[in-house]
Amino acid sequence: MSTTTPTATEPVRAATEPPREGRRAGAVLALARFEARELLQQIPVLFFFALYVLLVALRLMSKDGMDDFPVLNTVDRRTQAAPLLFALALFICANAAALRSRKHATVQQLAVLAMEPWRRTLAHVLSVVPYAGLTALVVAAEYTREALKPGAIGQGSAGELAVGPLCVLLAGITGVLLARLLPSSFVPILFVIAVYLLGVLVSGFVDDEQDWVSRLVPVQLFSSSGGDPVPSDLLGRPAGWHALYVVGLCAVLTCVALLVAGGRTRAVKAATALALAATAAGAIGQLPGDTAALDAARRTASESPQRVQSCSTYDGSTYCSFPEWSVVRDDWAEVVDRVRSAAGGAAETDLTIRQRVDTSGGVEADAALEPSATPGEVTVGGRWGGNRVPEFAVGVAAVLVGGSEDVTSEPMCDARAVTVMWLVLGNDPTPSATFRNVRLDDSTSGSGVVLAPTNGLSLTGPQTTVIRELLDRPRAEITARVKAHWAELTSARTTTAQAAKLLGVEVPKEAEQCGE
User: Fold this and answer.
1) Are residues 324 and 254 in the same domain?
2) Would you say residue 14 has pLDDT above 50?
3) Which domain holds residue 107?
4) HSE-up of residue 258 (Cα within 13 Å, Cβ side)
5) DSSP classification of residue 371
6) Same domain, 255 and 382
7) How far apart are CA 364 and CA 382, in angstroms?
8) What SS3 state is found at 268?
């Protein structure tokens, strides 16, 4: 067997191999995949991620009627608080993973490997990225589910939706950084306590959510006090700049961890400078801008909403709302038609349905709307569905009976209150349940207050008794009597006892007292 040797003129075929940096990058990614799988096997990570998904699923399956008409500029912020427990679990487990070599006394063995400590640190940072991605998938699923509902109102903000996943990423990176700065298993617990106390301290000095200092907190918990949602342009939240700020924080903490671990390469230093610039830009972008214009817009929306609203006409009545709420005008019209169909006489007068908000105490504050004194005008708020539907029906009926909303400013110890409630309940598919739900005390006996978009309607015990008797009679019979005696039933001079006689039900034995 003969062998051939290359001559001087023949090129030597060198074995092709990837560049050195390419092999290092591949090793870092391989270690990152390994560490990500290790995190997935940690009970806290699995448990809290499952809990997070379960909470979101339960919220999406809620049977509350108002969930059928979600306001998307509140849905996007609602996605920010739920991932926090999962972020805490990832923070603790990522810290423990970065301390594994110290815990098992294998630091010296790792020191002889070709991979530098800062590259191993980078692998730990990259291992938490898939969990931020999983959070982003849950957030996207939650928002998409709400946005696809036929009654969805407005639109959300990509910047607000990004906060939840970014906070999960930030928590994991912080855990790795603390393992490099203070390699002790007690440090994460002390860090969480310190962050909590700092948050309490900051909230004690900063009461306004729009304050610049509060915006520097990575996650601004959605803490609306139960007030109606407002149009997106009245919120004054620089969501895009805030998302950039959190991205910059993630990058800065990553670079600090790499520098502490010895990664003082030119690329790391350049990335650090870029991360600092992004963080600074995000923080500066959240500085209060033209607050005078924002305050003026809020005053206009509260005091002169007709200047910024659009209107539609259905069957002669006018429905005016902020542009984002135009999709629910048809639903308002259905309620108005249902209430008017049980009325008679002058109830054919056309109405003006106007959406109103109150920003005098801040946006989304829990404030009561004052009744409108304009004849024929009915107020509707920012939420719709569920109990808000019969409450709106009460407002419509009060205007049909009394001419304007301020008729309920004083107790109506006469037939008008009975008439209002019959208009609300006469054509309702579940009148007894609706009567109970629309009352403040959730009962159908005794005196009580019936909720409305503005002032509630006070009912005496005798009036409640008459209304309950009406619900036990055939609807067609009572509706015919209401139409036939409309003038008497809408007069303040007609007593509750007289109304009972006109409607053909038993006169209550209780005394006629408004102060019950």
Assistant:
1) no
2) no
3) 20-223+230-289
4) 21
5) P
6) no
7) 10
8) helix
pTM, two decimal places: 0.86
Kindly state whether residues 311 and 429 are assigned to the same domain. Answer: yes
Question: What is the number of structural domains in the chain?
Answer: 2
The reported pLDDT for the residue numbered 22 is 62
CB 394 within 8 A of CB 426: no
> What values do phi and psi take at 489, rounded to 5?
-70, -15
Integer Cα distance of 177 and 182 in angstroms: 8
**8 Å CB contact between 132 and 90:** no
Residues 384 and 472 in one domain: yes
Give the DSSP per-residue string, 219-252. Answer: -------SPPP--GGGT---HHHHHHHHHHHHHH
What whole-number distance in Å separates Cα of residue 234 and Cα of residue 222? 16
Judge residue 4's burial from the number of C-beta atoms within 10 Å of its C-beta, 0-12 exposed, 13-18 middle, 19 or more buried: exposed
The mean per-residue pLDDT over the stretch 175-196 comes to 89
Whether 281 maps to a domain, the answer reads yes
Same domain, 474 and 338: yes
**Residue 203: what pLDDT?**
63
DSSP secondary structure letters along 355-418: E----TT-TT---PPPPP-STTEEEE-S--STTHHHHHHHHHHHHHHHSSGGGGGS---SHHHH
**CA gap 18, 223 in Å, rounded:** 54
Length of the chain as a residue count: 516
Confidence at residue 26, expressed as pLDDT on a 0 to 100 scale: 86
What span, in angstroms and rounded, lies between the C-alpha atoms of 473 and 178? 72
Residue 509, Cβ density class (10 Å: 0-12 exposed, 13-18 middle, ≥19 buried): exposed
Q: What's the rounded Cα separation, in Å, for the pair 311 and 451?
A: 26
